[in-house]
Backbone:
């Protein structure tokens, strides 16, 4: 320590001596402001060619001794350097312009950062401004349409995050979710397997990115190509999303308040039939199911109606239908008028205007030695459905301290507490309803039925059909409350060894530690009166605790010798994941107030209970070298060696190499004088990544416990253990061009990639003759290729007006090359050589059987020996022309469900203080399976153009009354082109003038107003929102306010 | 500078330590501590646990759904389509009943469901046999029992497979890796394996623990069944050499089983269920049953209480309730069932079907809860009392003097009949009031898989078949049939209007304040229109030439003339009277090749579609799509060849 003090003292003395040499010069003063008129503290003011300099104070003022003819250099991170020659004056006020060259931006590349211009891989970034431009409730939503090649699905349920895929889905069974890295720490998640499909996905309760307050995010960097993601080895196959939270900035102390208020309502694209339409529809359905017993749909009589509409089971609904048979005086007649029957809109009993408000207060500031950022956020999202809401409190504290030259340390802590009211519960229901939620339940209710009987009591099965349950008041009788507490930390300590010894110049040692704690609780209470129960109440309590950490040891090296710059990184990383869970449930909770909180022997007998434990570990070693020559030729190579506990011991370890290079062409002599090119860079990269995304214990599936009245036993797991299970590997080539032209008015990146995935991890179904249903296997190969374009243009720019366009567009296609036993299709697992992983396979549609097809239809009926088809039935294609529709010969591939084109475009218009932007998003070139229309005519029906004797040129087949399927081949009429282009967002913002703002004692004031999901520009399926893949989506208006103090 | 060096060295040490400490092997070793692994099967405890698990898989698992009814009751002469069409296609054999079964809704039983379940059962049985063979156990009882149970359960599954599908792949060893190449073994080979396995079980097992445990008698019963199957018409193309010996085995084995399992005194004893694991589930008549109990924690559950109920709750004055049951209304009885009983002298119809319910949702001022709300009058074709099939607020119930809101008549002048609507008397054998509440589907009643009444009828059938072959007389069958009929007759002093079913097991909590619709009374007197009688009745058949009128009617309708056909018809009719709805019918009819004629005659939905090839089920498409031959998936032509003809 003594040594160091001496050094400091020496430096101080030298500085003083140095300064005194110019003591005869005059004092130059001034204030430095940014373009908006705000003073900038901490700006370096240096006399050119000397060590003499000062910094501006908090008011942006400086004062320096300088001689006439000296050149003052003003510099500050993020702003263009400016120089002024000292003349006669003594006051020099300077307005610094922000650095408009985005190439200087720093991008996080995984275990380090790089300047954007030095990148060799394919990376897109979304910064804080872009996130702020569209208020979102979670970080994933912020990326929607902002990054080429990143597909983010919409999730409408409060508190949930939409699925995200980067460069398409490559894996079949393995998870396609990207890796999230927050402040350098990869998030660890628990994988769960869908019992029916075998698809592996991330357990949403085990830790995701939804806990982050988007306002706290500084940048999101998405690593797309394998040469960039290989640095994360076994976890990089699906891309890496690196989130960096806000840090304090040197010299700038700010207090910000951001708030927004959003109102939303459900917009329904697929209206239901009115009561009158539906009544006729069901009559037709009855007629076609039994023409001898029922009259045609347009020839009704009241006696048949009583039968058809279960008159005795629900007299209230019948009373409504009877209105159609009454004349003006209320007397029953024989004339039917369907318009007299009142239509019940059941969705209005479950939906409301959703209101979301968010408030974030953030403070930040810093000096050279210490920087800090802190925020507190509150989000209150009231869902558009009764009973659904999400409240999140989030707090962030980031501190970085550099007490000495050779040591720095930082802590960033993100915490959140979220309460998600899930609405009507999916567990504990005893009624048969396959409904996915209360809104869907409402839509299954019949338009002619009524919610309350004549005494005002709720009717549990409106219309008298026991499979149709009322949604009315359910939110009062059913609760599913999910509480998540998350604490995520990222701590580092860094030793700059070069500051200790000259010999070690450029060498740094860093240790990262990232603990991640999640506590999740799900409490469910269903009242005995709930329509999905029947007399007795139900409660369940699930607790899940997750503790994981990542510990990294890093050696970093960076040194420049003349034109040669060398970089090196060495990593040892260790990750452990520990998840424990328990749950219990009981029927007949005597005291409703207990809910799930008093499941004690005195109150209830448990109806079910369980506890579980999952432990996984990952050990990694990584090395990376980079070299650049004169910023012109850039090379990066890395290798990572990963071992994962969930794989069999022999196949546990794998090596993932990568190499990439870039050539900055515009720095070459021959382009030196081409002024319209600001940047032209070619990139080429290769990388291998892995996907060990199988759940723990997949190589040794446990025996399944059975409780039989004779005692407890075990049976074989119906999934066969596979001790040979190894890594799924993806090798990817990426070729890219980064460009900026015409004074940066046109800039962007164009990437082409090819990828090949081998040892594809697949949960494949196997012939059950061997006594199991399926097994995880490394089978086959897929290959894909794609093009991605990011294009930013400044179309018009003038003093008061600017129009910019940002486009992100991608094309991708993948196909299966081979499967486990070679180039054979695997029909049971729906995998076909030469096609994408998600195809529709089945009978193709030849439309509907019409009277003019009588001769042809007769041949089918003759071949079958019975009347399998009649007019109005869906007509499958008989591929082999044998007049028999059979699975062996007539099924074909209908098409791929993976979109080929994904397109996002934002147009922004700035006029004076106004900013107007439109965000358009679309997907094209794929099939969407609408499922067809069942037309059983027993349940409710959306308004469709259906076949009947009076309407033979219809879109859909004839209705056939049934609780199940009316027409055996109805799904074939449901395959549609899924292309759409949607206006997702229109935003209008206004910056208040500086003068006004300052008068209010503020530094920044912006208000904005946005329309969310205002409508479709173009869609192939009018009655569904192809973006959310539901018929209904939320539509609303947001008002927001950003205040800086 | 020295200090820096020291610091630097220390830092490197720390880093190195961290690296080396986490490098040890343990860190990545995966330890499964929360469940047993395959190694458990190397222990005695593991083998016993696997036996218990396999019991569940083989006997009980399928009763948690609609496989039993779709595979054994739908599309027969006993039952036709009820109100809900989830599995109608299994009844109608119509379009979409194929290697894929057209999915009607989430409850539809797929073509491969039963197939997959049986092979998974076989997989467990194979593991059990394999482990019990390998284990060096000093406890012979454990080893022998486990082996005996293993062989029994494997054969139990294969007997169902061969009965449903004919030729099927034979898999007799557990697999540790995926295998894809399978061919179908001929029924001859499959039945030989079944008989070998049941014989092994018969030799290995003792006779304790029935009906919960597999006993020697259970093995004998099913061995007899396997022999009878081999000697049945469906195998006539190849069974000539084994037939007589097989039939003699059936008689010998049946006699042995019957001697240990006397019939319960009253048919009613079998179905009077008041609490889980009550007396009716422990009767000596029972040979083997799938076990269920009232615990919410047991795996699976018996859901058969749902399927045979008609939708009483849609009728006026009625409301769904726990005791009334949750009516899934899958299957309704046919007129064959209504007419095959001697309604006056045979107590079994009245003890198998629910014909009355009481008002529990009164509206208006006339009815009160507890009044008779629904009545089914199961009369004879000669009854001329009724003009209409459906009588709303018309027929008077003498006990109260009030009308009945809904009364349905089997034979009325309007000839509408009980098959035109979805109202029918519900089969009451599985009704279960011992559930949590009215919507809860988890039932607690055991399912009888084998009882000695069936053994009697198997012996009778064997005698009839032997008589055809010249090894016995047709009259030799009568003592076996009469034993069952004698028990079915009314006892002296018996209240013929008394009725009981599992609804009686309801609890007040589960009823949740809803009035009950269950009444322990049947429509015997209203249907038969006779004066109250308490004398004993007699159902004995004295001669093969004097068959009961009900049977003569069936014989006439089906056009039988030979003694053999008439007697086989009698025994099949008797099986309905005794075993209606007990999950044997489809296999009995297909085995005797009487399915097509009987379904055409009595099942209105099957009538237009059923053809000879329906005697076997379609081989599931998932199997055809999944198997390989010579290292390649099957071509469309090869799949066609592997499929049962007609599909």
Residues:
């Amino acid at each position: 320590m003594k040594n160091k003090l001496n050094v400091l003292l020496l430096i101080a003395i030298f500085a003083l001596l140095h300064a005194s040499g110019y003591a005869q010069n005059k004092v130059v003063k001034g204030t430095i402001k940014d373009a908006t008129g705000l003073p900038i503290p901490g700006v370096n003011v240096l006399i050119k060619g000397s060590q003499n300099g000062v910094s501006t104070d908090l008011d942006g003022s400086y004062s320096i001794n300088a001689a006439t003819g000296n050149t003052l250099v003003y510099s500050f991170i993020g702003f263009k350097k400016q120089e002024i020659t000292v003349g006669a004056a003594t006051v020099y006020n300077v307005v610094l312009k922000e650095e408009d060259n985005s190439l200087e931006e720093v991008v996080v590349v995984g275990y380090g950062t790089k300047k954007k211009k030095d990148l060799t891989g394919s990376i897109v970034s979304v910064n804080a401004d872009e996130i702020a431009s569209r208020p979102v409730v979670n970080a994933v939503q912020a990326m929607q349409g902002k990054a080429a090649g990143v597909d983010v699905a919409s999730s409408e349920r409060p508190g949930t995050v939409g699925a995200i895929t980067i460069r398409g889905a490559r894996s079949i069974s393995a998870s396609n979710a990207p890796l999230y890295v927050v402040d350098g720490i990869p998030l660890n998640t628990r994988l769960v397997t869908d019992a029916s499909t075998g698809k592996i996905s991330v357990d949403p309760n085990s830790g995701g990115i939804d806990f982050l307050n988007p306002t706290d995010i500084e940048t999101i960097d998405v690593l797309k190509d394998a040469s960039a993601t290989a640095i994360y080895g076994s976890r990089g196959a699906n891309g890496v999303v690196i989130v960096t939270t806000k840090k304090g900035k040197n010299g700038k102390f700010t207090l910000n308040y951001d708030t927004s208020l959003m109102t939303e309502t459900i917009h329904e694209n697929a209206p239901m039939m009115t009561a009158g339409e539906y009544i006729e529809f069901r009559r037709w359905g009855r007629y076609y199911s039994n023409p001898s017993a029922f009259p045609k749909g347009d020839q009704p009589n009241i006696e048949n109606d009583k039968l058809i509409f279960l008159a005795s089971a629900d007299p209230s609904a019948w009373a409504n239908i009877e209105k159609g048979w009454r004349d003006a005086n209320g007397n029953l007649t024989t004339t039917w008028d369907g318009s007299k029957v009142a239509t019940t809109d059941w969705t209005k009993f479950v939906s409301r205007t959703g209101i979301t408000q968010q408030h974030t207060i953030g403070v930040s500031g810093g000096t050279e030695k210490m920087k800090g950022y802190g925020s507190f956020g509150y989000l209150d999202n009231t869902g558009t459905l009764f009973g659904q809401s999400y409240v999140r409190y989030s707090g962030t504290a980031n501190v970085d301290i550099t007490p000495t030259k050779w040591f720095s340390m930082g802590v960033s802590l993100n915490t959140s507490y979220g309460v998600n009211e899930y609405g009507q519960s999916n567990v504990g229901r005893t009624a048969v309803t396959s409904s996915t939620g209360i809104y869907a339940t409402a839509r299954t209710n019949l338009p002619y039925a009524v919610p309350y009987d004549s005494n005002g009591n709720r009717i549990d099965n409106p219309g008298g059909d026991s499979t149709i349950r009322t949604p009315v008041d359910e939110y009062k009788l059913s609760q599913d409350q999910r509480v998540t507490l998350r604490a995520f930390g990222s701590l580092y300590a860094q030793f700059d060894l070069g500051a200790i010894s000259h010999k070690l110049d450029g060498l740094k040692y860093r240790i990262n530690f990232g603990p991640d704690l999640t506590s999740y609780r799900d409490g469910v209470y269903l009242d005995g009166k709930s329509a999905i129960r029947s007399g007795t109440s139900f409660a369940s309590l699930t607790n899940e605790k997750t503790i994981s950490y990542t510990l990294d040891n890093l050696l970093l090296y960076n040194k420049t010798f003349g034109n040669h710059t060398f970089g090196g990184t060495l990593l040892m990383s260790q990750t452990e994941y520990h998840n424990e869970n328990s749950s219990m449930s009981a029927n007949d909770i005597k005291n409703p107030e207990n809910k799930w909180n008093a499941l004690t022997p005195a109150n209830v007998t448990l109806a079910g209970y369980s506890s579980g434990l999952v432990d996984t570990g990952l050990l990694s070693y990584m090395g990376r070298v980079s070299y650049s020559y004169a910023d012109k030729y850039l090379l990066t190579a890395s290798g990572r060696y990963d071992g994962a506990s969930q794989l069999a011991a022999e196949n546990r370890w794998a090596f993932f190499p990568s190499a990439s290079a870039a050539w900055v062409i515009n720095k070459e002599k021959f382009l030196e004088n081409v002024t319209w090119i600001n940047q032209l860079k070619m990139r080429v990269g290769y990388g291998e990544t892995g996907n060990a995304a199988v759940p723990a214990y997949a190589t040794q599936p446990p025996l399944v416990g059975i409780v039989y009245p004779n005692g407890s036993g075990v049976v074989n797991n119906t999934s066969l253990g596979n001790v040979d299970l190894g890594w799924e590997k993806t090798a990817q080539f990426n070729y890219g061009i980064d460009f900026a032209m015409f004074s940066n008015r046109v800039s962007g990146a164009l990437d082409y990639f090819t990828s090949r995935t081998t040892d594809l991890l697949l949960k494949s179904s196997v012939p059950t003759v061997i006594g199991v249903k399926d097994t995880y296997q490394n089978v086959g190969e897929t290959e894909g290729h794609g093009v991605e374009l990011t294009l930013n243009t400044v179309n018009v720019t003038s003093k008061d007006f600017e129009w910019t366009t940002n486009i992100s567009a991608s094309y991708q296609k993948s196909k299966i090359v081979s499967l486990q036993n070679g180039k054979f299709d695997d029909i049971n697992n729906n995998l076909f050589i030469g096609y994408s992983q998600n195809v529709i396979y089945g009978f193709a549609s030849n439309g509907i059987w019409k009277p003019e097809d009588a001769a042809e239809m007769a041949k089918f009926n003759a071949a079958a020996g019975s009347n399998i088809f009649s007019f109005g039935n869906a007509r499958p294609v008989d591929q082999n022309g044998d007049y028999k529709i059979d699975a062996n010969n007539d099924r074909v591939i209908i098409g791929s469900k993976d979109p080929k084109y994904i397109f996002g475009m934002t147009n922004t218009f700035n006029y004076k203080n106004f900013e107007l932007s439109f965000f358009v998003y679309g997907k094209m070139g794929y099939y969407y399976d609408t499922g067809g229309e069942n037309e059983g005519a027993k349940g409710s029906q959306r308004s469709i153009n259906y076949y009947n004797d009076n309407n033979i040129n219809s879109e859909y087949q004839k209705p056939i009354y049934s609780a199940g399927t009316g027409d055996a081949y109805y799904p074939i009429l449901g395959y549609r082109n899924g292309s759409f282009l949607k206006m997702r967002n229109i935003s209008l913002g206004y910056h208040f003038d500086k003068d006004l703002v300052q008068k209010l004692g503020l530094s920044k004031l912006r208000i904005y107003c946005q329309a969310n999901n205002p409508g479709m520009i173009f869609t192939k399926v009018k009655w569904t929102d192809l973006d959310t893949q539901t018929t209904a989506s939320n539509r609303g208006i947001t008002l927001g306010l950003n205040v800086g103090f | 500078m020295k200090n820096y060096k020291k610091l630097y060295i220390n830092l490197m040490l720390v880093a190195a330590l961290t690296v080396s400490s986490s490098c040890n092997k343990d860190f990545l070793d995966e330890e499964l501590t929360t469940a047993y692994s395959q190694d458990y099967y190397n222990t005695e405890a593991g083998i016993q646990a696997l036996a218990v698990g396999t019991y569940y898989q083989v006997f009980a698992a399928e009763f948690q759904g609609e496989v039993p009814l779709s595979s054994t009751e739908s599309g027969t002469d006993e039952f036709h389509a009820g109100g809900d069409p989830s599995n109608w296609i299994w009844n109608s054999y119509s379009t979409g009943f194929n290697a894929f079964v057209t999915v009607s809704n989430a409850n539809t039983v797929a073509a491969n469901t039963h197939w997959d379940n049986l092979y998974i059962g076989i997989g467990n049985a194979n593991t059990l046999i394999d482990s019990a063979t390998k284990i060096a156990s000093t406890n012979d009882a454990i080893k022998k029992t486990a082996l005996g149970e293993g062989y029994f359960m494997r054969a139990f599954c294969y007997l169902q497979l061969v009965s449903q599908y004919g030729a099927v792949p034979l898999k007799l060893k557990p697999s540790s890796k995926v295998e894809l190449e399978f061919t179908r073994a001929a029924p001859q080979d499959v039945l030989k394996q079944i008989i070998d396995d049941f014989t092994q079980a018969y030799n290995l097992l003792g006779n304790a623990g029935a009906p919960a445990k597999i006993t020697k008698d259970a093995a004998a019963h099913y061995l007899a069944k396997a022999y009878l199957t081999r000697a049945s018409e469906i195998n006539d193309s190849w069974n000539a050499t084994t037939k007589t010996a097989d039939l003699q085995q059936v008689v010998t084995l049946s006699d042995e089983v019957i001697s240990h399992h006397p019939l319960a005194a009253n048919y009613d004893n079998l179905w009077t269920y008041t609490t889980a694991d009550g007396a009716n589930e422990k009767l000596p008549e029972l040979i083997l049953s799938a076990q269920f109990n009232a615990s919410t924690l047991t795996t699976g559950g018996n859901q058969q209480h749902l399927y045979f109920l008609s939708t009483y709750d849609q009728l006026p004055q009625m409301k769904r309730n726990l005791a009334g049951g949750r009516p899934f209304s899958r299957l309704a009885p046919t007129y064959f069932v209504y007419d095959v009983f001697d309604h006056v002298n045979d107590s079994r119809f009245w003890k198998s079907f629910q014909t009355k319910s009481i008002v529990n949702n009164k509206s208006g001022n006339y009815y009160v809860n507890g009044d008779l709300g629904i009545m089914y009058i199961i009369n004879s074709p000669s009854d001329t009392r009724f003009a209409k099939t459906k009588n709303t607020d018309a027929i008077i119930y003498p006990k109260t003097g009030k009308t009945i809101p809904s009364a349905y008549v089997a034979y009325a002048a309007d000839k509408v009949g009980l098959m035109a609507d979805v109202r029918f008397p519900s089969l009451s054998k599985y009704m279960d009031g011992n559930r949590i509440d009215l919507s809860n589907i988890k039932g607690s009643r055991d399912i009888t898989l084998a009882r000695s009444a069936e053994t009697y009828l198997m012996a009778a059938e064997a005698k009839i078949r032997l008589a055809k072959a010249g090894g016995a007389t047709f009259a030799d069958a009568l003592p076996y049939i009469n034993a069952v009929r004698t028990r079915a007759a009314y006892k002296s002093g018996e209240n013929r209007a008394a009725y009981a079913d599992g609804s009686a097991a309801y609890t007040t909590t589960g009823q949740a304040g809803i009035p009950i619709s269950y009444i322990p009374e049947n429509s015997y007197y209203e249907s038969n229109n006779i004066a109250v009688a308490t004398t004993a009745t007699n159902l004995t058949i004295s001669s093969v030439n004097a068959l009961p009128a009900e049977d003569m009617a069936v014989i006439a309708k089906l056009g039988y003339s030979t003694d053999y056909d008439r007697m086989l018809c009698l025994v099949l009719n008797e099986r309905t009277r005794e075993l209606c709805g007990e999950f044997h019918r489809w296999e009995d009819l297909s085995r005797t090749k009487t399915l097509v004629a009987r379904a055409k005659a009595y099942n209105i939905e099957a009538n237009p579609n059923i053809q000879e090839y329906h005697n076997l089920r379609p081989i599931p498409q998932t199997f055809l799509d999944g198997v390989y031959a010579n290292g390649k998936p099957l071509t469309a032509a090869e799949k066609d060849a592997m499929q049962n003809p007609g599909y």
User: Anything to note?
Assistant: The longest helix of chain B spans residues 140-165. Chain B touches chain A through 127 residues (CB under 8 Å). Residues 383 and 417 of chain B are 13 Å apart (CA to CA). Chain B has a mean pLDDT of 93.
